[in-house]
Amino acid sequence: MDIFLNISRICPNDTAKVTEASRNLADSLRTSERRDQLSCVEDILEALNLQFKQTTAIDDDISQLERLTQLYRVTANICLDSNTNRQKLIDADVDISALGVLKSLTPQQISSQPYAFMLRAAFGTLINLSQDYSPSQERLNNHDTLPIVVKFLNRRNIQANDSATAVTHSYIYEWGWRIVNNLLSTENAKIEPGSTEVDALCSWVEAFYSQSIEDEYAGLEDEDELQAVYEEDLSSLESATLLLETFAFDSEAARLLLAQEEKLDVLLSFAETRELPRALAASADQSSVEEWSKIYEECKAAVGKCVVGIASEDQLMSFFFDNGRAPFVQRMLRWLESDLQRLNISGTLAIGNLARSEENSIIAVKQFKIIPRLVQLLRDDDVKVSHASMCLLKNLSLPASNKDEIGDSGAMEAAQKFLSLSFSHVQPLQFATVGFYKHLCTQQFCNTLTIVNHEPSILDSVLVLISKSDDAGVKSEGTRILVHGIKSCWISAGEKAQYARSKFTSHPVAKALVELLCNYRRYQILINEAVMGLTLLASERKGADYILAETSKLAPAIKQVLEDEKEINKKVKLNVCILYSNLVLKQTQENSNAKQLKGLLEQDIKSLCDDSDNELSKTASTVLSATTWS
Predict the structure, then answer these.
(1) Are 343 and 304 spatial neighbours (Cβ–Cβ below 8 Å)?
(2) Quick check: 255 and 197 in contact, CB under 8 A?
(3) Which CATH architecture has domain 1-156?
(4) Strand, helix or coil for residue 94
(5) Alpha-helical segments (H) within 13-82
(6) Is 589 exposed, middle or buried (0-12, 13-18, 19+ CB in 10 A)?
(7) C-alpha–C-alpha distance, residues 304 and 299, integer Å
């Protein structure tokens, strides 16, 4: 240590002496005992800072590259497993100086072995500095470390025709991805990927799809080394595809970059591949090939999810769909028909993203005629396939012109199994399912009739799910099926409508609606829908009796709504007045539940008679007059 400090002070420009002193110090710091005994850390960091800062143009000077390699080794070992030294290092701005050197390098330069060794040492510094220490992670993110690192991870920039270079590059890839993961793992990481990052990630997908890796390693003859290099390449592909998936869902900029024709075609073509590249399959034993094939499948699935993320971009919807004529949506339709489940999943979800407009949704049903295939996929044993199909069916069920065709397709019957408690561990699937039924029952009596007529009863399955599910979203959306089913029945006439009404007129239905009103005070739309459903149910004496059986819960909830001057709008209060009227109007004083409800709420209704909202005050006055018992 003293030798390094003395040389740094006395002859800082003597490259040979600085290199030798740095090498010796780096070697000595490889053991935890020597690192613990290290004193004058601040002086060493100051010397390192000056050495990095005085690096200007390297100009392929081998001696300068070796000097930097050893300086990076010292820096890496100082902050290894020491948060104290990591903090001292960033306080001394050594990280900024060290990054400055990397900024000046080009990816093409690391095809040279001395540059590659230096970069490997620099990556070692960044790994040790960023490992499980959020202050240094945030610091590196603030200084745009990610694009500096990623530019060296672009697969197109590296040619490895000899053993030593290939092995060195394997370290660079491995350590580079570790740095990237460290930087992205910080809680407040806000990194907007640009063309550098997207190009680098796509380069790995392209290399495996085009199988160019076979030619690039043609000079490697040792089978063990070749297998190790391929294994590291596969690991890099895994890291790249996971990041592509993340960026496609989190970043608008990334989605727009990935939608460029050349990149998108590579992603789509890679996702469609079936076998491990020939070079990898031929270089390993059966056990390794099986493990690699599993990883490769996960990479293709991640790229499929990336495609789904890209398709979610609003700015791309028209381009990707184009009235059903766009190459992208046509390719997704082929994925939907594929015998590969992962393509079924991604294709279905991508079409779902494009079918968020009513026009596109109608084209998907009427022109593409995909409903029979979706019903077929609902019967698949794979819940991921079922979930994707259910999500798309939910979207397609929104337009009124689609409801009849979907209702007659067998989709409602096929989806019933997902209402079972045996699927409660797959919350997204159940949530999509109840949303699907809700959409189909909205202003559509025939589909509502299917819910009550089918054996076993879909309505009963919904009620069991509402009562037993632990998920708030599933319970609320499930109850909204009841609301819209009731509306459809009550606005319809005839014997079938009367029969359907009788099925909804039950205590379990009334109880579910009351709980929706009681448990979702934060959401006015849910409060209002609960009130509307209860109001229609209470329009008949039997329905009112079932609701009044829940007075102990209902009355306090209604009282809170009526007394709320801040959150609840006047329209909701007006609807509550009508509900109150329906519940009380046909009852007598002998009905203890009605008497209790009236006693708790009558004064609140009376106070609304003087409300500034003319319609509300008139309604309240009318209700109060009509519900006065003699």
Answers:
(1) yes
(2) no
(3) Alpha Horseshoe (1.25)
(4) helix
(5) 15-28, 32-36, 41-53, 62-78
(6) exposed
(7) 9
The token duo for 321 is 């769909």
Measured in residues, the chain has a length of 630
Burial class from Cβ neighbours inside 10 Å (0-12, 13-18, 19+) for residue 585 reads middle
End-to-end CA gap in the chain: 101
Beta carbons within 8 Å of 242's beta carbon, 6+ residues apart: 302
Q: How far apart are CA 452 and CA 503, in angstroms?
A: 7
For the chain, the maximum distance between any two Cα atoms, rounded to a whole number of angstroms, is: 109
Contact, 176 vs 149, CB < 8 A? yes
| Alpha-carbon distances of 23 from 16, 128, 433, 620, rounded to whole Å | 11, 18, 64, 88
What are the residues whose beta carbons fall under 8 Å from the beta carbon of 124, sequence distance 6 or more? 72, 73, 76, 175
List the one residue out of 629, 583, 567, 574 whose CA is nearest residue 605.
Answer: 574
Q: Which residue has the tokens 């495996």?
A: 208
CB of 119 closer than 8 Å to CB of 152: yes
Q: Average the pLDDT over 545-573 and give the result.
A: 91
Could you please report the per-residue DSSP string of 520-562? -TT-HHHHHHHHHHHHHHTTSHHHHHHHHTTHHHHHHHHHHHH
Torsion of the alpha carbons at 166, 169, 170 and 176, rounded to the nearest 10: -170
**DSSP class of 486:** H
CA distance 150 to 481: 49
Structural domain spans, the chain: 1-156, 192-311
Residue range 420-440: mean pLDDT, rounded: 96
The answer to whether 242 touches 302, Cβ cutoff 8 Å, is yes
What pLDDT digit, counting tens, does each position of 197-228 carry? Answer: 999 999 999 999 987 776 667 667 778 888 88
In this structure, the number of other CB atoms found within 10 A of the CB of residue 395 comes to 23
165 Cβ neighbours under 8 A, 6+ residues apart: 111, 113, 116
Q: Is the pLDDT of residue 396 over 90?
A: yes
Contact 579, 538 (CB under 8 A): yes
Task: Give the mean model confidence (pLDDT) for residues 99-124.
Answer: 90
CA distance 514 to 530: 7
The one-letter code for the residue type at 86 is: R
Q: Are 40 and 5 in contact (CB under 8 A)?
A: yes
Within a 10 A sphere around the Cβ of 52, how many other Cβ atoms? 21
**Pairwise CA distance, residues 538 & 627, whole Å:** 14
Q: What is the pLDDT of residue 163?
A: 67
570 Cβ contact partners less than 8 Å away, ≥ 6 residues apart? 611, 613, 615, 616
Instruction: Say how far apart CA 217 and CA 164 lie, in whole Å.
Output: 12
Q: Contact, 480 vs 530, CB < 8 A?
A: no
Q: If pLDDT is split at 50, 70 and 90, which confidence band does 630 have?
A: very low
Distance CA 180, CA 550 (A): 57
